[in-house]
Design brief:
- There is one protein chain.
- With 224 residues, the chain is an alpha/beta fold.
- It contains 8 helices and 11 strands.
- The protein has a 7-stranded mixed beta sheet with strand order 5-2-1-6-7-11-10, with helices on both faces. A two-stranded antiparallel sheet has the order 3-4. A two-stranded parallel ribbon has the order 8-9.
- InterPro entries: Class_I_gatase-like, ElbB.
């Protein structure tokens, strides 16, 4: 039977939405493995809009669902309509939209809140013992919601290759166990059915990012 996987997006663009290469890699690897991706996003305003040339906020407002539809080629559903009963797994790509639109991690760190619909979906998959795949910054959602879980965002020591390593320290303060890993590796928390990989938390060649996400997708489908 074809496995049905919900992919939740956070907009379109690394600095204010979903990281496009990560989202694309998830969809490509799901397709390659014969799984059916069903794309969702919350119907909410973005925190802000960033000019990706200048790296600065722009004076306009956009909607997370509408922007995410760009990546999904229009084939997308409101997250409020997601029914965990008909799905086998959940994957959330990274990008700053996870920390800005799906949560307030970007401004509040470990004291953040999670978008109500996003938290509800994560808890529903967790309660149903269905696997959840998270990459880049999105493991912070699990760290906030599931105390004691095991995740990776790469390394916990900041350097040129790992510029966002302080994220791991903040996650540890939430009571989760961070496992250092390379960009092409994943960590599987079998108790919580979580599969995580660092993706663009690492300054790495894009093919390595793609390969790490592929390994995450395969592990999620193996557990489904």
């Amino acid at each position: 039977m074809t496995k049905r996987v919900a992919v939740v997006l956070a907009g379109c663009g690394v600095f204010d939405g979903s990281e496009i290469h990560e989202a694309s890699a998830v969809l490509v690897h799901l397709s390659r493995e014969g799984a059916q991706a069903e794309v969702y996003a919350p119907n909410i305003p973005q925190m802000h809009v960033v000019d990706h040339v200048k790296g600065q906020p722009m004076p306009e407002q956009r909607n997370v669902l509408v922007e995410s539809a760009r990546i999904a080629r229009g084939n997308i559903k409101d997250l409020a309509t997601l029914d965990v009963k008909g799905l086998d797994a959940l994957i959330i790509p990274g990008g700053f939209g996870v920390a800005k639109n799906l949560s307030t991690w970007a401004t509040q760190g470990k004291n953040c809140s999670i978008c109500q619909e996003v938290e509800g979906v994560l808890r529903a998959f967790h309660a149903a013992h269905k696997p959840i795949g998270l990459c880049c910054i999105s493991p912070v959602l699990a760290a906030k919601i599931f105390p004691g879980c095991e995740v990776t965002v790469g390394h916990d020591t900041e350097c040129e290759q790992w510029p966002y390593a302080k994220t791991a320290e903040a996650m540890k303060e939430l009571g989760c166990r961070h496992v250092n890993s390379q960009v092409t590796e994943v960590h599987v928390d079998t108790r919580n059915q979580l599969v995580t990989t660092s993706a663009f938390m690492c300054n790495a060649p894009i093919h390595d990012i793609h390969d790490g996400i592929g390994k995450m997708v395969r592990e999620v489908l193996r557990l489904a």
